[in-house]
Amino acid sequence: MEVVQVLCMKGGNGDTSYAQNSLLQKKVISLTKPITDEAISNLFCNNFPARLCIADLGCSSGPNTLFAVLEFVTTVDKVHKKMGHELPEIQVFLNDLPGNDFNTIFKSLPTFQKDLQKTMGAGAESCFVTGVPGSFYGRLFLGKSLHFVHSSYSLQWLSQVPRGLESNKGNIYMASSSPPSVLKAYYEQFQTDFSMFLRCRSEELLEGGSMVLTFLGRISEDPSSKECCYIWELLAVALNDMVAEGLVEEEKMDSFNIPQYTPSPAEVKCEVEKEGSFTINRLEASEVNWNAYHEEVFSRYQKIVADRMSREKTEFVNVTVSMTKRG
Ligand SMILES: C[S@@+](CC[C@H](N)C(=O)[O-])C[C@H]1O[C@@H](n2cnc3c(N)ncnc32)[C@H](O)[C@@H]1O
Question: Relative to the CA of 64, which ligand 1 atom is closest?
């Protein structure tokens, strides 16, 4: 089954929905806001377009989706007020895979419009929000139509589970015990996917347009380093225990691998430079503390994670890159 057909965060607003379990991701959006603000402000160095097109890729559904949009629009508003310019019409495209719960986002739009009105007054009516279902590993928008692209905690998802992971037995991701061929297969899939992403966006962004992308990543150059793989190694401990107790089939455990890659800043830089359409303005790593997780298989996982969190420093690493399309 294709990842793009099955991958989605849990929709709705229930206890186990993404909406109720994405505080950590919200923290990351806030943490990287100065970089986003700077990139948006730099769009208006030379001119003030009458229409502005912004896209958030991998927007999911829940409070973070419109929280991010509110931040973009208020930044645009502030810059324009400061420079004495009229606010442009703003088209915001919210993209995610077709299985995403777009309906929940659309239902919260009236509240969002009210919030926007409170923050910026009459200008709020010039902001238009549209859903765009599809994979960001393909074209999503008209050529040369976007001014700014944002994506947070989405690009670590690969387009598919890498091929050639048969020897990754007992693991569900890259791990310290994974053979080198497994690490290579994951890296090559990341290179293929991210270069495709850059190619598509370079066609869609206007000259001088920019992107701020934040990946769940790592600082170390070791792709099986604890800082990115430990969380999945702990989940594998829970699943292996369940295999030993006959609750999960060993074959299923051995054939299950997570379609993610958590790149280092150097790996991100390498792909951007290879593709050649963008100039990197900033490339930074930051850290956020792990958060709690829930759900059936996670009750064991929760105990293991809680135990480790009480004894060790457990943080996720974020890699953020801000870049401008070359002329
Ligand atoms: C962890 S959520 C992040 C959501 C939101 N940006 C946030 O910060 O809370 C990752 C999102 O990326 C989406 N995603 C993964 N692969 C994608 C792809 N190829 N194209 C579009 N969206 C994708 C997932 O469906 C999911 O909603």
Answer: 9
Q: For 92-101, write each residue's pLDDT tens digit.
A: 999 999 999 9
The answer as to whether 42 is a domain residue is: yes
Mind listing the pLDDT tens digit for each residue in 168-206? 988 999 988 899 999 999 999 999 999 999 999 999 999
Cα 243 from Cα 241, distance rounded (Å) = 5
Position 292 pLDDT exceeds 60: no
DSSP 123: G
Query: Alpha helix locations (H) across 225-282?
Result: 226-244, 250-255, 265-275
Domains contained in the chain, number: 1
Asked if residue 147 is part of any domain, the answer here is: yes
Q: Rounded to the nearest whole angstrom, what is the distance from the C-alpha of residue 152 to the centroid of ligand 1? A: 8
**CATH number of the domain within which 148 lies:** 3.40.50.150
In a domain, 117, yes or no: yes
Query: Would the CB of 29 count as within 6 Å of ligand 1?
Result: yes
Q: What percent of the chain has pLDDT over 90?
A: 53
Distance from the alpha carbon of residue 97 to the mean position of ligand 1, in angstroms? 7
Its domain, for residue 107, covers: 3-167+187-219+259-290+315-325
Q: Which residues lie closer than 8 Å to 153 by C-beta, 6 or more apart? A: 25, 28, 58, 214, 215, 216, 318
Q: What is the pLDDT of residues 254-269, one digit of tens each?
A: 889 999 999 999 999 9
The CB of 154 under 6 Å from ligand 1? The reply is yes
Of ligand 1's atoms, which has the minimum distance to the CA of residue 60?
27
| Ligand 1 proximity of 135 Cβ (cutoff 6 Å) | yes
156 lines ligand 1 (CB under 6 A): no
Q: Residue 213 domain-assigned?
A: yes
